[in-house]
Task: inverse folding
């Protein structure tokens, strides 16, 4: 998509792009350039966090950075200009056409946005679609040519120059904050230089009126972008980025798909022996071999034997979509939250190929380099809660998928083996599935097949 606009022959603007399906906003994590720096086509200028990943953005032209429109920590809508570049430095003052700027339009106080039809609307990256009633996004701006542009630009930059109308002065992020909190900027007393309304002014207007009490020292409110500490007893952390996307997706999934979870405890002693042997196998050299690799392969075999589990429910068209491929999702805990990248066409991979893909997926996720494309299109997921010493859980489906397998901790336990109680390696598996399209028989057969393979891993060959 085109993410740049040309404001004149000299200055060009770069807009926040849609770096993943359904993305509506992103937070600027870090700027790698500052005004006055020279940039070249393809150079990374900033890092942004979408709903599911951190993404580096390259600039698509050469020049000198003229202006950064938003500071680090700001959440910016897709399509907003984030950086302006002088592509003809040293050519003198900007031409007159540069007086034309984009002015954000205030939303009418009494006029509501037209309602769009109810239906399937894209949500943030990696979470498919959600059934919602949506509103059309407000038009970003109108062009105001001539001398008025300078006054408007001064308002945006916070210099306090009064635009010749009755609109309160506030930067675009502050206007968005006021909208989110339901605050009419006309009722907010400005404290910024030149009568500009600040974020603190909006938060103050949104706070409930305090009851009469003895005067207390005034404590400046914490910035909205940072956790707010309430007298050392509470910390409030803004819900945004990955955490916001996780919350929306989990609520949507839990209250849309009727979940059923089944459990089985299985002796995996032979699987653990196989893992030890594979680690010494020269054909697996360079491959990270662990129990998760065998569990993933076991699930793929179970899906091939029971293909009905690899499907999705299409609410809008009232159809069951049967998938003839498996994009195997692996839930990964990262510093930015839980993400679920998937191995594309995992059903076609050999055991060494599957191991290589798993190793790359995990290392990329931990480094925060997982792309939105890597998290889209999953069909079935594995979540390994055993790494935390947890026996099992009741996992929630990823939207758009029909099943998720939770793997518990593998522990040495007393187990009846060949008529005698012996210490054996044991784990508990939990399979959650969408009961709209997966009945109890199908879900049970899939879980039983995975357990049977882990108990007797030679079935990876006999059932292949």
Result:
């Amino acid at each position: 998509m085109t993410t740049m606009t040309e404001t004149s022959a000299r200055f060009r603007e770069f807009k926040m792009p849609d770096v993943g399906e359904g993305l509506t906003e992103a937070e600027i994590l870090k700027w790698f350039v500052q005004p006055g720096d020279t940039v070249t086509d393809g150079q990374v200028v900033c890092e942004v966090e979408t709903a599911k990943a951190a993404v580096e953005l390259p600039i698509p032209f050469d020049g000198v950075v003229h202006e950064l429109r938003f500071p680090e920590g700001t959440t910016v809508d897709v399509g907003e200009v984030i950086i302006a570049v002088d592509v003809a430095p040293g050519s003198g003052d900007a031409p007159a056409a540069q007086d034309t700027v984009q002015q954000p339009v205030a939303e009418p106080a009494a006029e509501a946005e037209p309602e769009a039809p109810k239906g399937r609307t894209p949500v943030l990256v990696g979470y498919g679609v959600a059934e919602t009633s949506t509103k059309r996004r407000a038009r970003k701006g109108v062009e105001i040519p001539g001398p008025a542009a300078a006054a408007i630009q001064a308002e945006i930059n916070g210099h306090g120059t009064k635009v010749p109308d009755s609109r309160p002065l506030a930067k675009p992020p502050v206007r968005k904050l006021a909208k989110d909190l339901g605050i009419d900027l006309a009722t907010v007393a400005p404290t910024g230089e030149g009568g500009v309304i600040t974020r603190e002014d909006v938060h103050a207007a949104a706070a409930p009126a305090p009851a009469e009490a003895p005067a207390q020292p005034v404590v400046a409110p914490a910035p909205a972008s940072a956790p707010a500490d309430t007298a050392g007893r509470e910390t409030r952390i803004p819900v945004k980025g990955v955490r916001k996307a996780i919350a929306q997706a989990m609520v949507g999934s839990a209250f849309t798909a009727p979940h059923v979870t089944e459990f089985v405890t299985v002796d995996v002693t032979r699987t653990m022996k196989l893992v030890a042997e594979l680690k010494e196998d020269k054909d697996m050299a360079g491959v990270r071999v662990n129990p998760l690799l065998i569990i993933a392969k076991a699930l793929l075999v179970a899906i091939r034997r029971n293909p009905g589990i690899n499907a999705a429910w299409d609410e809008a068209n009232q159809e069951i979509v049967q998938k003839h491929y498996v994009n195997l999702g692996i839930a990964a805990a990262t510093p930015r939250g839980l993400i679920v990248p998937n191995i594309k066409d995992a059903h076609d991979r050999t055991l060494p190929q599957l191991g290589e893909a798993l190793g790359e997926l995990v290392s990329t996720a931990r480094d925060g380099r997982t792309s939105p494309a890597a998290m889209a299109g999953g069909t079935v997921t594995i979540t390994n809660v055993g790494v935390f010493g947890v026996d099992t859980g009741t996992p929630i489906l990823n939207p758009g998928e029909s099943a998720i397998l939770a793997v518990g901790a593998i522990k040495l336990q007393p187990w009846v083996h060949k008529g005698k109680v012996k210490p054996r390696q044991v784990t508990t598996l939990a399979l959650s599935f969408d009961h709209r399209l997966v009945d109890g028989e199908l879900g049970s057969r899939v879980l039983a097949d995975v357990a049977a393979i882990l108990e007797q891993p030679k079935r990876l060959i006999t059932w292949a």
